Amino acid sequence: MTGQFSLLARRRFAPLFVTQFLGAFNDNLFKNALVILIAFRLAAQSSMSGPLLVTLAAGIFILPFFLFSAWAGQLADRHDKARLIRIIKFAEIPIMLAGAAALFAADLWSLMAVLFLMGSQSAFFGPLKYGILPDHLRAEELVGGNALIEAATFLAILFGTILGSILVLRDHGVAMVAFLMVTLAALGYGASRFVPAAPAAAPDLKLSINPFAAMAAIMRVALRPPEIFAAILGISWFWLVGATFLAQFPNLVKMIGGDETVVAFFLVLFAVGIGLGSLLCNLLLKGAVSLKLLPWSALMLAAASAHFAWAAEAMTGAGRELAGIVAFLGRPGALAIVADLVVIAAAGGVFAVPLYAFIQARADIAVRARVIAALNVMNSAFMVASAVLGLVLLGAGMAVPILLGLTGGLTLPAALILARYLAQRERRIASDMSALASGPSHSAGPR
Question: Which residues of 10-38 are buried (b: 16+ CB within 10 A; e: fewer)?
Fold first, then answer.
């Protein structure tokens, strides 16, 4: 564990860590400030309902990941990743200045346009932040580095969500959010200046101008070898489960008698749980890039999800007065729900981090950023699928606790299938390597 945190004092990791943290913080600060403004002020200016506008905002932020991830992966493989990081982080400054102006103008569609630009910037940054880690970290540091990035990302999401939600409607709240946005963008660019160079992996790569052709190209890259794509599906499943839980926290908390402070408390628990699980992962694996924890983390996640659903169902009561955090925790069954939630999140961290390290370690250096770009596309698709799944099942009458229990529970069979497939691929690769090594001795002699 000490070695893991020692990366924070290394220039080959610390500037990227800070850059990533500030970027995720800024994205969620603006995004959640916009959601609160829509819900409480801006919806009245539009002919569309508040919930529909909030859903539209979520879609606008995700859309660039579908549109631009392929180009982002190609650029990251063709050019120095550190130089691209600096360019992308510099672009965040004018984007945030435009966002600040849109906040002061309280213009809904200008804010939506800025949200699209932020999503675009994040789409171009994604293949860089994960693609550059194997360039600067040793193989035994990959799990620890990914764990720190994953933990920091969820904490940044948490801080951005809370600050964006509570500041924007206060007196001078718009000014505070605007100031924070521009400051974080400037600090992020400053940190990016210290990221060490990472020479181009494929300098002769031809860029596809057609976004659909580029998308098809990166998906073909991600399919070779098959175990890489299997790991991509595993990570995307993690994001589907996480997105489902996060989206349903407001509905669930209201059902079990909590107020908005309990929703924020659940968000904190979830972010902290994933952070703890991510950091614990490196301790358990001792730095090795291994998927041996995959079935066990899935079992923990599934079991905790099932108990979470049962406990939440038991707490559901019509007409119950909504309680704050302290009063809620004093109710029968509340502590069990809290414990389950932390276990679910921690198991998710243990589940996802080795898969990220596996992809980085196995992907060919010349195509690594494009593989990460394909991962971002799949993550976005699975997150959209989680929203569609929730709408369909809840619309059909399924209770929120059952939806969450089912989603978390399905992680176990998904992980077992994934682990079995990857184990078979490992045996096949080892057999092929053994046959290749012994081939010349068997074929020696006159022809």
Answer: eebbbbbbbbbbbbbbbbbbbbbbbbbbb
Q: Mean pLDDT, to the nearest integer, of 426-446?
A: 54
- Confidence grade of residue 82 (pLDDT, cut at 50, 70, 90): very high
Whole-number Å distance between alpha carbons of 403 and 409: 10
User: Above 50 in pLDDT, residue 356?
Assistant: yes
Phi, psi (deg, nearest 5) at residue 258: -105, 155
- Rounded to 5°, angle at Cα 374 from 75 and 58: 100
**In the structure encoding, which two tokens stand for residue 297, read together?**
């983390």
For the chain, the C-alpha Rg in angstroms (whole number) is 23
d(CA 35, CA 199): 40
- The residue among 144, 163, 197 that closes a domain is 197
Q: Residues 7, 13: contact at Cβ < 8 Å?
A: yes
272 within some domain: yes
Same domain, 422 and 274: yes
pTM: 0.79
Q: What are the b/e assignments for 158-190, b being 16+ CB within 10 Å?
A: bbbbbbbbebbeeeebbeebbebbbebbbbbbe
4 closest CA partner among 140, 121, 98, 113: 140
- Residue 361 parent element (H or E): helix 334-362
How far is Cα 379 from Cα 106, in angstroms, rounded to an integer?
31
Residue-wise pLDDT for 283-317, tens only, equals 888 888 888 888 899 999 999 999 999 999 888 87
Is 329 within a domain?
Answer: yes
Q: How many whole angstroms separate alpha carbon 124 and alpha carbon 418?
A: 29
- Check which CATH number belongs to the domain holding 115 and give it: 1.20.1250.20
| Interval 403-421 mean pLDDT | 89
Question: Is the link from the previous residue into 225 a cis peptide, with omega within 30 of 0?
Answer: yes
348 closest CA partner among 410, 290, 408: 408
183-202 residue pLDDT tens:
999 999 999 999 999 888 88
In terms of residue numbers, what domain contains 327? 208-429
Among 146, 356, 342, CA closest to 236: 356
